[in-house]
Amino acid sequence: MPTLRQLTLTLLLSVLGVLTVTAQANDTTWQALEEGGLVILMRHSLAPGVGDPPGFERGRCETQRNLSEQGRAQARLAGEAFRERNIPIGAVYASRWCRALDTAELMQLGDVEPAPWLDSFFRGRGDREAITQAARERIAAWEQSGNMLLVTHQVNISALAGRGVGSGEMLVVRPATGGLEVVGRLDVRAP
After folding, report:
1. Which positions make up the signal peptide (predicted)?
2. Residue ranges of the chain with pLDDT lower than 70?
3. For site-directed labelling of 156, which of 39, 54, 136, 165 has its Cα 20 to 30 A away?
């Protein structure tokens, strides 16, 4: 029977193996971004809670769920990671929700354009099909040498790519016949 020490060592080696795979996946994704022409689907940084409080009004941040200090730090850290690697950003679009706009602004990767086609449709706040279709059309039309950064919400990313992401996490995609090809996932959040 294995000792507690042997079990602990085995668990530690397993965790380190996962971290190595994640780091390698991030490296491959960063390299693809250096070449440009891709789309980054980013979930806004950490804004504790779910949905928005009663009395929500778009354009009035005090009525919304907003970034925490940790979320603000996540956004700044993500922007630093892009700048350190000289990742070309050709355009930055964000949902009109304050937490998405704030994330994009704090990243400091270019002028941020509010985009209704990135707005959340969680709990019936918008037309899921229309918003998703408009986002797909924008993504399919991206043919710039730089990358396009889209800061949006979990529900939007799941509808577009069929995968979820954590707060501040990103999926890097390219348009493909019949949908999107996921190039990789980026997680530059502070531990």
Report:
1. 1-25
2. 1-25, 51, 53, 56, 61, 63, 123-126, 189-191
3. 54
The one-character DSSP state at 51 is: S
**164: which 2 tokens?**
């979820």
What is the pTM assigned to this prediction?
0.82
Query: Which residues span the domain enclosing 111?
Result: 38-186
**CA dihedral of 71, 75, 81, 82, whole degrees rounded to 10:** 160
* CA distance from start to end of the chain: 34
Closest by CA to 164, choosing from 172, 150, 154, is 154
CATH no. for residue 76? 3.40.50.1240
Say if 42 falls within a structural domain.
yes
Tokens of 91: 């355009």
Confidence (pLDDT) at 163: 87
